[in-house]
């Protein structure tokens, strides 16, 4: 089930998207108070925006814009809204996304082709181990996608390894939809309860929220840890509420495939210009076919690299490599730059590290400082030195290491109202 447009030539895909772009510009000009105003204020003549290269004539949309003018982005009357979703905003208050009936159909299509991309068929049964409620989009998207694909779904929800295993053994799902580090918890539970995980029938996992791969697409520490205990095919996915769209790996596992019927992709530098092919830049997206809250040149804040070489699966669409990090969380440290996910990869290597947060701050001479707060039963000087040595060897940085009790770290990870654990505390932005 590969959509025809994804097998089309690069030129055909571009022409197809340029057509869709015209429709989008006309739509937001008429229905979005925000974009209508932006076009007017910037004296933009929409008839001059014809190709994807013309996009650079349009201003970008930031997370702050979304938060400040949230209601102005809405293109439909309230009576047309079916589902309300929120994301945590950068300025504090959550940003609301409204989905119409048509948007839910689009979401279902998106997820169905993403599952198909990972090789899932109508004969498969998927177990959902993530939240479907709490104003999240992801869980709902998975449910709709599985239904559209004609596969089966077991909605267990987040946490509770006991119920997860009860469901796996009872219903024999072939895939799990899961945050990768939760797979480690399932492995641990199975060990304690003498469950033979490799006889469970689960053959793969659709993974969200955490990176599984290094930049060369080999499995990172977390990915290796999982597959060394459990013979699973791991598929990375990358998605966000703002995009309404997922990038999912195919069986080649060489980056998440772009679905050109759903989204326009730009990889931009700080001046909002495209980076050179193969360079790292900020993923910037324009949604196609969204009715409730379409976005134009939305800067996601995620730093990525795009791959355009034809994929062995037959799709001609570009692929996104693993997210290198959040643009805002870039750490400048003695001439090198790095992002927190690189540090996660090192910390995941130590089984004695139970939990941690990474704190980034400015020191009094104006450079960045990294402090890693760790909960561990082993708080020896030797262990601390061992962690530091790994950081120096692999990342050429030497962070401060502090040991704290598990509860303290949990408190830092789950501030009030937070739905996802906070792994990075960036004190630089508080100034
Ligand atoms: Zn592929």
TrEMBL record:
One Pfam short name: AMP-binding
AMP-dependent ligase C-terminal domain boundaries: 335-428
Keyword Transmembrane helix annotated: no
Family annotation (InterPro entries): AMP-bd_C_sf, AMP-dep_Lig_C, AMP-dep_synth/lig_dom, ANL_N_sf
Domain of life according to the entry: Bacteria
Keywords: Ligase
Gene Ontology terms for molecular function: ligase activity
AMP-dependent synthetase/ligase domain ranges (all copies): 85-287
Record-given protein name: Phenylacetate--CoA ligase
Organism: Mangrovimonas yunxiaonensis
Organism phylogeny: Bacteria, Pseudomonadati, Bacteroidota, Flavobacteriia, Flavobacteriales
């Amino acid at each position: 089930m590969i959509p025809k447009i994804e097998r089309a030539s690069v030129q055909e895909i571009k022409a197809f998207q340029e057509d869709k772009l015209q429709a989008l510009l006309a739509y937001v000009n008429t229905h979005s108070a925000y974009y209508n105003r932006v076009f007017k204020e910037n004296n933009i003549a929409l008839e001059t925006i014809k190709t994807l290269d013309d996009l650079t004539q349009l201003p970008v949309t930031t997370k702050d814009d979304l938060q400040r003018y949230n209601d102005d982005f809405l293109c439909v009357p309230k009576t047309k809204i079916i589902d309300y979703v929120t994301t945590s905003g950068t300025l504090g208050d959550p940003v609301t996304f409204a989905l119409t009936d048509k948007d839910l159909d689009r979401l279902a299509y998106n997820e169905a082709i993403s599952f198909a991309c990972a090789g899932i068929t109508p004969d498969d049964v998927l177990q959902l181990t993530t939240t479907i409620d709490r104003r999240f989009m992801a869980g709902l998207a998975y449910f709709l996608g599985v239904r559209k694909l004609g596969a089966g779904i077991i909605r267990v929800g987040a946490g509770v390894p006991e119920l997860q295993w009860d469901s796996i053994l009872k219903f024999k799902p072939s895939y799990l939809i899961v945050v990768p580090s939760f797979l480690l918890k399932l492995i641990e539970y199975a060990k304690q309860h003498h469950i033979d995980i490799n006889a469970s029938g689960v053959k793969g996992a659709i993974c969200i929220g955490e990176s599984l791969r290094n930049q060369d697409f080999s499995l990172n520490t977390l990915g290796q840890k999982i597959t060394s205990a459990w013979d699973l095919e791991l598929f990375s996915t990358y998605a966000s509420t703002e995009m309404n769209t997922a990038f999912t790996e195919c069986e080649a596992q060489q980056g998440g495939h772009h679905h050109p019927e759903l989204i326009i992709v730009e990889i931009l530098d700080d001046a909002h210009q495209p980076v050179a092919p193969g360079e790292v830049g900020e993923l910037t997206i324009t949604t196609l076919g969204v009715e409730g809250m379409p976005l134009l040149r939305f800067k996601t804040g995620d730093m990525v690299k795009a791959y355009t070489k034809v994929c062995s699966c037959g799709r001609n669409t570009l692929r996104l490599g693993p997210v290198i990090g959040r643009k805002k969380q870039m750490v400048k440290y003695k001439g090198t730059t790095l992002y927190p996910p690189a540090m996660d990869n090192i910390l995941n290597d130590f089984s004695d590290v139970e939990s941690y947060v990474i704190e980034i701050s400015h020191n009094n001479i104006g450079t960045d400082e990294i402090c890693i707060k760790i909960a561990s039963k082993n708080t020896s000087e030797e262990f601390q030195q061992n962690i530091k040595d790994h950081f120096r060897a692999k990342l050429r940085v030497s962070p401060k290491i502090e040991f704290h009790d598990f509860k303290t770290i949990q408190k830092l990870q789950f501030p009030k109202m937070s739905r996802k654990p906070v792994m990075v505390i960036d004190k630089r932005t508080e100034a």
